[in-house]
Fold these 2 entries.
Entry 1:
Amino acid sequence: MEELKYRIYAVLAVMCASGLVLVGQLVRWQIIQHNAFVEIATAEHRDELVIAPRRGEMRDQSGYLLATDVMQYNISASPKIISDPYSTADRLANLLNLSRDELLNKLTSKDLWVPIANNVSQPIGETIMKWDIVGLKADVRTKRMYPEGNVASHLLGFVNENGYGFYGLEGYYDGMLRGKPGLQKGERSPFGEVIPWGISNFIPPSSGTTLHVTIRRNVQYLIEAELQKAVQTYQAKRGSVIVLEPKTGAVLGIASYPNYDPNNYGTSDENLFVDPSVSDQYEPGSVFKIVTMAAGLDANVIVPETTIYDGGSIEVGGRVIYDWDRKAHGTVDMTTIMAQSLNVGIAQIAVALGKDRFYTYIKRFGFGRLTEIDLSGEGPGTLKTPKDATWHESDIGANSFGQGIAVTPMQMANSVAAVANDGLLMKPHLVKRIVDSDREVEVKPMIVRRAVSEKTAHTLTDLLVTALEQSDSAALVPGYRVAGKTGTAEIPIPGGYHPTLTVASFVGYLPADNPQVLVLVIIDRPTVSRWGNDTAAPTFARIAKQLVILLDIPPDSVQVTMK
Amino acid sequence: MTTKIRNFNLDYILLLVIVALLIIGLMMIYSATFALGYTLHNQPTYYFIRQLLWLGIGLLAMLVFARVEYHTWRRFSVPLMAVTITLMVVVLFVGDIRFGGQRWLFNGSVQPSELSKLAIIIYIADWLSSKGKKIQDVNYGLMPFAILLGVVAGLIVLQQDLGTAILVVLTSLAMFFVAGGNLTQTAISALFGGVTFAVLISQSPYRWARVTAFLDPLNSDPLGKGYQIRQILIALGSGGLTGMGLGASRQKFGYIPASHTDGIFAILGEELGFIGCVMLIGLFALLAYRGARIAMSAPDSFGAILAFGITCSLVIQAIVNIGVVTASLPFTGVTLPFISFGGSSLITSMASAGLLLAVSRRTVSENQSSEGKDHEINHLRGRHWGPRLPRLSRRASVK
């Protein structure tokens, strides 16, 4: 029996040796290489999840929602761990209106992961979450929603898949609207479940700023409807309308047609994304005579009663200028020049001002530079001054009635608004109130500079009212004195001007004694009639007649009795 | 006759070791499975409750084996072996294929190769103890032993359970050696067995891949064949000296496949650290020591060989399992006795422990002379338990 003991001891010795080897291995992995493994483990378990912040909303002056984030779900499945693909396919088919066979194919496929449906609405996504089927996943994502669809599309812009804002307010205020993303640091299993006692660190996202814009939804809707009607009626290429509050520079409405639906910007023509009212330039034509007249009056070169001889043509800097009807109009006063829109007459005022004074006034009205409106992609227009090599003596004459100078619709509207605002040029703006999580900022109207004296502004307003009334303009609004001017600008093409196509426009404000609202209407390339008085002026009247109701602007008779 | 056989003299230290292992096992299983249970069955205690059930059955088996006079099993060693071999043949034809191996019966709840281990040990102990000194004779000892072992191991290999086959062969060789087998013969058989397994491994691509993964556990195919061992080492390694704390394992969240069965030692290492690992190894060492003591003080050679066979079976299985988890051995699916999740494994381990305890009850008091013991052994063998041999010549002589 002694031998049995020895043999047992021998086997025990081998076992002991094996055990020591195991302990040695444990020392190797757990003690010597411990730090290296901790590093590997940390790297393997690390999980950083960026939590997208909620993008700020945009609301109109009365609080109507113009843009907001909505929750959507992306539904996907891991076929391998779905226990009952048949009933799951049935339920999904009913809920999502998808083909049951196709779903079954996906749910029984060999793939580790299959997408089922993207961008499904919040209630549907939440229903699927409530089913709590292992292997079925509903990932929440936010989508930018524009409840009004096409309305105000140019003004709002859109947000792309990655949460970046483009064009309009979304583009201009992108940084503020976007907010700061949060970060969820933690440890995760290879299947993505959070390890509950893993290291975790949560930095909450901060939501973007909410913008309350100066736009009024009903004004916006009105001008868009009227603009669309006008572009279609006059068979024009496109058109723009800007509605300003002259006293503050607040934009009450801004529209261009054709427009697009920012909810589905992906399927829209990308040429429509740029807002023509701030980014595109055009030659303003006779509307610009307001600027020349204001300069003449303010510099005391003329008074309204000054008369000028119109012989039908005049040569300025080697170029002959004609009136629109190529006729001689004889001796005319300032009102007649505006009423009949006489190029020969207005050119003589510019010549009398001289190039220095004339261009100083043009610049004072904000031309040749940005209005600094809070919309993305604003253009400065094209203004040649005597300092530029391309400038020519003849440009004084052409510029006086809005040729050889290119402006943006916003520049044009804003410069005339200065006349309506007692000669003060305001900075046009679209945001009225900025609401953050911890503060609320009211945007104050900002004066850019004085363009002309108060007296000049009032004189010019009266002159414009009289001119419109004399010419029996289509822009007149019964019950209200309207100051304004039509324009029919030829379209520059290489080597001259297009023989037939024009940009027809009208800018006007009312009530003339206490201007509450200014409207610029631009009809680009109307074909039914090329004249501004036939197209833009009546459109202005239609819009203005409804605006005075929407904005509660009392007729002149009431205002007089109030005084 | 001065021999005094002490009945009801249970080895309480061994019992304590086994109870400690079972408690650690339950603790680790709950820790390793509550997340899995919640994910797959919406019930954190899903696996724990099942293991408790197996533990209940295991306790019953342990009690039965500890109470029954262990020589009783000797009487049934041949029919038990016959049933075992039949079952192993049956499972080849009707068994479920699970995890790449064909080793389950009755819808996956019974794994015959686990249960067969005990029957094989009883049979071999019976066979070897009946040989006495004749075991040194190649024709009488080694040859039939090798054939018997070859058939049994071959059947287990056919079930794609190489790990259990290796365990059975190693245990049998240790028993053969302890029973008095010639040292040279034992060495040659071990060599022969080693070559056979080496050939088997190199012939199977998936087994070979496990060997290559073993050679460079951290970098070879970290997303394929080397994935499991890499994740296991990450668990062990990040445990460090004192571990991350009970329950705090990260790797059990789906990183380690079968973290509650074959890989449970890795979770233990991650949560309880080097200290916990060494304590568990210490418990198995204590088990080996107590088992060896029981074998040495067994009243007869059957009891001695049986006790030591059981001890070897449990300890070698633990060594292989921990060897795999510490990347000291190529990957093979062997459970950790008393600790790993799984009914067959737990019940077999507990029944084995019961049998070991049964032998301990019949130990000869230590102050007995070896002479007296021999007398006793001879006495018992001659009176009640004739050797049973599946050999025609032997049967002829009995007649």
Entry 2:
Amino acid sequence: MNNLLARATPYIQATPLLVILGFFLAVPILLLLVVSFWDYDFAGMYPGFFTFNYAETLTSWVTWRTYGNTLKFAALVWAITAFVGFWVAYFLAFHVRSATTQMILFLVCTVPFLTSNIIRMISWIPVLGRNGLINSGLVGADIVDQPVEWLLYSDFAVVLAMVHLYTLFMVTPIFNTMMRIDKSLVEAARDAGAKDWQIIWNVILPLAKPGIAIGSIFVVTLVMADFSTVQVMSGGQSASVALMMRNQMSLLQYPAAAANAIVLLVLVLFMVAGILRIVDIRKEL
Amino acid sequence: MTETSKTGISRRNVLKGGAAAAAGAAIGSGVITGFPTIWAQNPITLRQFGTGVSNLNAIAEKCKEDLGITLEMTATDSDAAAQRAVTQPDSYDIADIEYWILKKVFPTGVIQPMDTSKLTYYDKIVPLFKTGKLLPDSVIAQGTAPHTVGFVEAPGDKTFAKGETGWFTMVPTIYNADTLGIRPDLVGREISTWADIMDPAFKGKTAIINVPSIGIMDAAMIMEAMGNITYGDKGNMTTAEIDATIDFLIKAKQDGQFRAFWKSFDESVNLMSSGEVVIQSMWSPAVAAVRSKGIACKYQPLKEGYRSWGGGLGLAAHLQGAQLDAAYEYINWYTSGWVGGYLNRQGYYSAAMDTAKEHMSADEWGYWIEGKAATGDILAPDGTVMEKAGAIRDGGSFEERMGKVACWNSVMDEDRYMVRRWNEFIAA
């Protein structure tokens, strides 16, 4: 009896998590998968097994182009946030000496996050617009004759807003990993004659990899699933996968959107798997 | 147990029916002026859902006050409204939907036609909704013109009647004529045609609406104005016509003609007021919103005419007995003038102009409907000044505006194909 209880204990302990994940994650995804094979018209969805939602999605050049565009955003934003995030975290972890200052500065980083995503995004518009802050400054200072058009409603604006929104998701995990690096390793490297860049390249960067990997997962999944930033900052001129889905949903083409969601899910899972293959998060934590 | 409860319900129904009959008799006889408050003693709730334009709280409050009928209003976007109308017919009593939605929804049998003899103000309803002609010499517009889906031969019919009959599918509530909005201070020249939005001078300073079913119509007006194509019916394009229209839009987009595509009301307001665009698709409340910031904005009448839209109230098929009577009473109240005046003052148009006139001041009537210069300040329903004395409404009088409708919002047979191609345009 005792033996049985002992064997059952881990399962009982895991049950709450299993129930939550099952109910809020597995079941919805399963439903999504089922619905993606259904037929639809304006009035409703009709159960069945049809593959044309996938066929229409995968054979259309719009889909490929949109995925290409979304991946481009993901790559650009990832590269910039990783670069910025690494140096911000490095500064916080190794240059700021006192723990109090570290925490204060870290909290300062999070201050913008006290406002909503949408507000932070939209507040770029008066800055970047044709008659915005930057353009009036440039024209007023006679640096340019005509306002610079590509600042707003362009890919540049989208990437800028995304970097602004998502950099902290990179800073936090990297900072966290760097704080765990034993300072004596850095001292040892210095004693052994390593230069600053050698310490960063050979000691800190390898040890910060799990943090970079976690941050990358955050940033990549956020960018891949983003629709509001792309819609607002590109002025509707640019497409993203999630925006395509949102268009379909607003037209009540749920099965088509579900098929799209499944394709995106598979792609993102592959990307995450790729990141995890390069960096073993668990081993290095 | 079941027996008892059944009797109970039916007895109550009889009572309600009696009360309604009494109310009906009272109105019919004209003995009582104003509206009987009988519903207050025997409370009736009508659940109305719709696209939001006419889901106004002020109307629900006034309805409660005048009729004692509680209106529960729910607003959705138009596609969700179409879906709900069909899939949850028991979830509403009154459907407040646009005519093109009705065209999709009515054949499924969820809306019952109205007996015109029970509609007190049927004779006052603008002929546009009965014959398609505002004035005897008007040309019938393309698209889903309300009169084409306005009547059936008999209750239970699934197809629309060719002409006016005694069975009205919806009583019109609110309608208007849309055109392009411009910044008169920034365009620097006369704007007179839909084709002007493609003028190279406005490169990178134009926008169109990114709602496929409406955007395609604006594009069609532009295409036709430029002389690129003549559509059989702009409101029901063939696939070849859709292809031609979308290819044209894609080319214009790649040439950088557009600054943005807007999806929501506030986006269109911001694009215009910040000067990002100088000419774009717009809705009349958005023009008013830009103007209220003190920025010049004009709802420019164009020679090809307007793209128009309209909605109405339809009765759910399940309504019967006292509820049905209450619904008729509500609709009669709706067309009796107060609501009409309220809507006209917002820059929309109401179905029965004659009754609305009695609820508007002579100056308001002159400004909003007759196209005359305002003699005093024109106030919004909340009391703020909308237009100063001397202002003239863009496009002029009701007859000038609604008499020049080129096309009604509509649903195409090739809808799905059109949406797919529209998405290509946005992704291109």
